[in-house]
């Protein structure tokens, strides 16, 4: 795609923005409905987006941690369109399709441990929802209906259905909404910034693992069904746990017969350099993995949960009648399954996981260089997930005395970066970066140069 090609098409930015006033966007500030003017994205290729004015933007958030193989792959478009002409849709209740069967088979072959059973959903929220409902179903079937409490973490994000949002712990997302609070409990997540200065790393790890064990004991092990955790807290601000955290939490879960659900909606499909991060990065084989986003690289919506043989084999074949009455019209949609298959083929053929393992450390190193900007208070990440956190401090750099928290600082940085050719994902005072996994070192240099300019321009505005 070239800008020239873009200019040959007609985009009326004002007209689109005017009509967009009827599109209630996710996380919309309701007072602003009708007056928002969002950037109109028009075309995309590789790591680049083009807006309706013909400006090229690096897709810093990779859509929303999802356009893993990059935009505009012709072979994806071909596979998808061929499947639409072959069969557009089939009911997953009474029939199946070659693509859905093959994709389930390929995922099960590559999944950690005995996670050999694939339940397709429409996205990440419905994958988490399906996991909670399956676990409750499983415990009811086993004759322990009281074992249905779930423990998740503060700052965690698991989705926007009633169940998955109730599992989420991000405080700012709780305003004016209702949640299930009886069955869902939250413990602190390990966050290096929350570690008391006089506490050793080992003691802090012990404390955060003890938080889980204490919560299980407080609720009662007979009542706790599962622990749900993201390997790295994604929209909570890319918070990387201390080494050994997930392993230790899994041990605690095993001790009390509590299932472990690893929410890999963001961390799977290459974001950390592996298909799934649970086993390859964090050394655990959970009972259920939830995935979405990179599963199809966002070419078509799809999610999935991968379930262990241990759970499935608990259902007695001779008994019958254990129908898991949960599912979606679009579970295993053949077009989405074809996109998933092609996505996996491209990732493996083009050695995208190896590429992330090579460029990821470079990306992190360059991001760390932002620490010398006085309003940058923290920089963290892993693989191709990164976060720069800013505070208006006394100007002495990271860790300086905090004078004020500017809730709009992320938006300000995004606006400055967009003018210079980079789209940023602002979350309050953080900028989260998760570019397409195909990004090269030169492109990382471009991205970081713009990010630095954007943060420095913001600093000039606010100090
Ligand atoms: N789980 C995690 C860890 C996520 O980051 C997200 C979305 O960002 C979800 C679940 C929800 O996925 P979706 O938006 O596809 O429903």
- Termini, distance in Å? 40 Å
- Total strands: the figure is 17
The largest sheet is:
7 strands, mixed
Task: Name the ligand types.
Answer: pyridoxal-5'-phosphate
> How much of the polypeptide forms β-strand, as a percent range?
15-25%
Classify the helix fraction into a percent range. Answer: 25-40%
| Class by SSE composition | alpha/beta
Shape: globular
Gyration radius (Cα, Å) is 22 Å
Largest beta sheet: what is the strand line-up?
A: 4-10-9-8-7-5-6
Unreliable runs: 395-401
Explain what you see:
GO terms for molecular function: pyridoxal phosphate binding; transaminase activity. InterPro entries: Aminotrans_3, PyrdxlP-dep_Trfase, PyrdxlP-dep_Trfase_major, PyrdxlP-dep_Trfase_small. The chain has 15 helices and 17 strands. It has helices spanning 3-8, 13-20, 62-65, 74-86, 98-110, 124-141, 162-167, 201-219, 245-255, 277-280, 309-312, 334-349, 352-368, 409-420, 441-462, and strands at 41-45, 48-51, 56-59, 117-121, 149-153, 184-187, 224-229, 259-263, 288-291, 303-307, 376-382, 385-390, 392-393, 402-404, 422-423, 425-427, 430-433. The chain has a seven-stranded mixed β-sheet with strand order 4-10-9-8-7-5-6, with helices on both faces. It has a four-stranded mixed β-sheet with strand order 1-2-3-15. α5 crosses α12 (334-349) and α8 (201-219) runs parallel beside α9 (245-255). The structure holds pyridoxal-5'-phosphate (PLP).
């Amino acid at each position: 795609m070239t800008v020239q090609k873009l200019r040959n098409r007609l985009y009326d930015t004002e007209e689109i923005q005017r009509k967009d006033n009827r599109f209630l966007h996710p996380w919309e500030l309701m007072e602003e409905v009708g007056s928002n003017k969002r950037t109109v994205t028009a075309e995309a290729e590789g790591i680049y987006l083009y807006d309706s004015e013909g400006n090229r933007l690096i897709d810093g958030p990779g859509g929303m941690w999802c356009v893993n193989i990059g935009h505009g792959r012709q072979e994806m478009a071909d596979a998808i369109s061929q499947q639409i002409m072959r069969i557009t849709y089939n009911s997953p209740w009474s029939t199946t399709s070659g693509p859905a069967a093959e994709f389930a088979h390929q995922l099960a072959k590559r999944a950690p441990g005995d996670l050999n059973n694939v339940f397709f959903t429409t996205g990440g929220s419905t994958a988490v929802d399906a996991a909670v409902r399956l676990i409750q179903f499983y415990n009811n079937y086993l004759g322990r209906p009281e074992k249905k409490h779930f423990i998740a973490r503060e700052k965690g994000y698991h989705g926007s259905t009633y169940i998955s949002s109730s599992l989420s712990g991000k405080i700012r997302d709780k305003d004016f909404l209702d949640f299930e609070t009886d069955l869902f409990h939250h413990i602190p997540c390990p966050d290096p910034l929350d570690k008391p200065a006089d506490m050793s790393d080992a003691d802090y790890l012990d404390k955060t693992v003890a938080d889980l064990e204490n919560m299980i004991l407080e609720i009662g092990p007979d009542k706790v069904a599962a622990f749900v955790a993201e390997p790295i807290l994604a929209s909570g601000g890319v918070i990387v746990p201390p080494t050994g955290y997930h392993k230790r939490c899994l041990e605690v879960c095993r001790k009390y017969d509590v299932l472990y659900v690893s929410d890999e909606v963001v961390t799977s499909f290459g974001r950390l350099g592996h298909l799934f991060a649970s086993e390859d990065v964090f050394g655990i084989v959970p009972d259920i993995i939830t995935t979405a986003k990179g599963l199809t690289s966002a070419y078509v919506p799809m999610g999935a949960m991968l379930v262990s043989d241990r759970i499935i084999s608990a259902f007695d074949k001779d008994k019958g009648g254990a129908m898991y009455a949960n599912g979606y019209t679009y579970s295993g949609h053949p077009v989405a399954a074809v996109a998933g298959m092609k996505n996996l083929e491209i990732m493996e053929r083009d050695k995208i996981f190896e590429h992330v393992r090579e460029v990821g450390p470079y990306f992190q190193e360059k991001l760390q260089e932002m620490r010398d900007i006085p309003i940058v208070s923290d920089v963290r990440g892993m693989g191709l997930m990164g976060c720069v956190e800013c505070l208006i401090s006394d100007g002495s750099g990271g860790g300086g005395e905090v004078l004020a928290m500017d809730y709009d600082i992320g938006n300000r940085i995004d606006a400055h970066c967009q003018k210079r050719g980079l789209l940023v994902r602002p979350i309050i005072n953080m900028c989260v970066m998760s570019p397409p996994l195909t990004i090269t070192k030169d492109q990382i240099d471009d991205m970081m140069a713009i990010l630095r300019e954007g943060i420095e321009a913001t600093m000039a505005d606010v100090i």
